Amino acid sequence: MPSISGHPYAGRLYQLFKYTVYGLLTLNVYLFFDEESKAAALQFAGGIAPGQLIEAFASTIDTAAWVILLLVFELETRLLNDRLLTPRVIGSLRIVRSVCYTVIVYAFYGYVTNVAFTYTTVPLPDVSDLCALAALDWSWAETLDVYVPLTAGNCASVSAAGEFLQFPGMNAAVDAKTLTDIRGLAWVDAINGGVWILVVVLLEIDVWLQEHNRFEGAALRTSTVLKFLLYGTLALAVLYWMWKGQFKDWWDALLWLVAFVFIELNVFEWRAESHRGQAEADVSLDPG
Predict the structure, then answer these.
(1) Fewer CB near the terminus (10 Å): N or C of the chain?
(2) Contact 44/56 with Cβ under 8 angstroms?
(3) CB of 129 within 8 A of CB of 121?
(4) How many C-alpha atoms does 31 have within 13 Å on its Cβ side?
(5) Which residues contact 259 (CB under 8 A, 6 or more apart)?
(6) How far is the CA of 125 from the CAs of 170, 185, 211, in angstroms?
């Protein structure tokens, strides 16, 4: 694997930019936790059972696991020289990656659960004006994780609809149009999570093939085509969140795309360095 000194992109500005992106992704763990903890206080008013943690904090848990996995990939494809990759180090990295993958799949289940939750709404009878709920400690569901308390000052401007729905077990109202938007966002969350799982599965295959000097020919072409499709889907998710005005979601997704460009560059340079090393070895063995 390439060492730091031998990396062609090792300029200081490049390194500063890359690790700034990694730092911003780490900060997003806190931002997601702050948002989800506020939503959980309403959605799980009676307390969060251990089995409900992933439903309440799917984005937080998912992002934390991805940050750790990203750093492991950075170590394996960029920072650790081949001579440092002892069996113990390789085994430790595999254990950490396995734990991260388990958490990521679990978080994906949380996204799927959130999609199902958006289809559990029931009609809110005898309420044609949200101001009737303003004095009853009710909230308005802006998105799946953002609930705005209804007050005398905002109840008339929140929605012009004459019929409303309620999320079961929650004092949270929503109209049909907003619910459609919430369902769309929940579906994109789930699709995005599933595609990212496919990305890392493909990246794991790439790393294994490179470790065994098989990342060539049909394997390389197939990987390139699949990545084009997968990263293209993730880019569409970014555009969807931009269209819906979900800054935190599209910003986080864009940062992840940039971060994995760095990992792809690491694998590319690792492959190029392996070719150079093999070429040098062939020259040294050439009696001429």
Answers:
(1) C
(2) yes
(3) no
(4) 12
(5) 21, 22, 25, 70
(6) 15, 26, 63
User: Is the pTM value of this prediction over 0.70?
Assistant: yes
Scored b (16 or more CB within 10 A) or e, 211-234 reads beeebeeeeeeebeeebeebbebb
CB atoms within 10 A of CB 6: 12
The whole-angstrom separation of Cα 112 and Cα 149 is 26
C-alpha count within 13 angstroms, C-beta hemisphere, residue 216? 8
Q: Where are the alpha helices (DSSP H) in the chain?
A: 12-43, 53-56, 58-74, 87-117, 155-158, 176-211, 217-243, 247-285
pLDDT in tens, the chain (288 residues): 444 444 454 567 777 888 888 899 999 899 888 888 888 877 776 777 777 777 778 888 888 998 998 888 888 766 666 666 677 777 788 888 889 999 899 889 888 998 999 999 999 888 888 888 888 889 999 888 888 889 988 888 888 888 999 988 888 899 999 999 999 999 999 999 999 999 988 888 887 777 677 767 787 888 889 989 999 999 999 999 999 998 888 998 998 898 888 777 776 666 556 555 554 544 454 555
| Ramachandran area for residue 137 (φ above 0: left; ψ -120 to 50: alpha; else beta) | left
Q: Which residue has the tokens 């819906």?
A: 244
In whole angstroms, give the CA distance from residue 48 to residue 75: 36
